[in-house]
Automatic annotation (TrEMBL):
Pfam families associated with the record: DUF389 (PF04087)
Cross-referenced InterPro entries: DUF389 (IPR005240)
Keywords of the record: Membrane, Transmembrane, Transmembrane helix
Name used for this protein in its record: Putative hydrophobic protein (TIGR00271 family)
Amino acid sequence: MLHLRAICPAERTDEVLAALTQHPGVTHVVVLRGAAVEPAGDVVEADVAREATDTVVASLCALDVDRDGGVTLEQIDTALSDAADRAEEKAPGEAADAVVWEELLARTGEESRLNATFLSFLAIACLLAAVGVVTNSPITIVGAMVVGPEFGPLAAIAVGLVLRRWDLVRRAATALAVGFPVAMAITAVAAFAGSFTDLFDRGMVLAAHEVDFVFQVGPFSLIVALLAGAAGMLSMTSAKSAALVGVFISVTTVPAAGFAAVAAVLAEWDICLQSVAQLAVNLVGIVAAAALVLALRNRRGQPRDLGRPLANG
């Protein structure tokens, strides 16, 4: 279940209470008159079955609570309550299949921002991938896959395409378009320094056959990217985040970027171009599959304001 808190003007509280109490998927409704200071108003709290959340949030947005007050949602890990059990039983659908669109928008919107943290993680991941390449270490390559933060913007692009949220698409595309070149440039500088100081040489890289899969682009590259994109979006929309780890270590986005940087420093342009192609195939495949999965999910009950720009966008 999700815990919902709404701040609303006092004159609209009765309507908010009616919207909540009339839905069978809502329970534990509490009202605190005059408790809100900024914005001023009443505070209404309730626990909502996940599969009912979209409809409930839509009804509150129809009352302009999101504009004149605010609506927040929090995940409830444990609820010991017969009333909560009844609400989940009466709510239509299954919790695992429910998409909370506002939650998905907020999550992907946050993870798609181009900031110092995103650039740092991407650069570190590319550097790890480069170390894996020059040391012929698949384990280090896997570590780079896990560290890489690129799935957030890729998922955001998919969400933006399906919901026609072009502000989200632009933000996420900018993060990727700036992030990967910057991370690859940093990796190239580090690789040049390593080559110049004899930390590794061309022979070491060309003999690293255990990591050749990173740049060997082919039909299975696209197949794996499509499967990973589908699994990743299912994980995000069903709140089964543990599956995302499997997504991270199944695609070669960051490793391909790191290999391309190392190959460019060594003037191995054929490997460099193949690595870039591998990167492109994975990026496109993940977005395509994620968007397809999202388009096939049930979109009934979306809040009417899903089309408005993100804050600070």
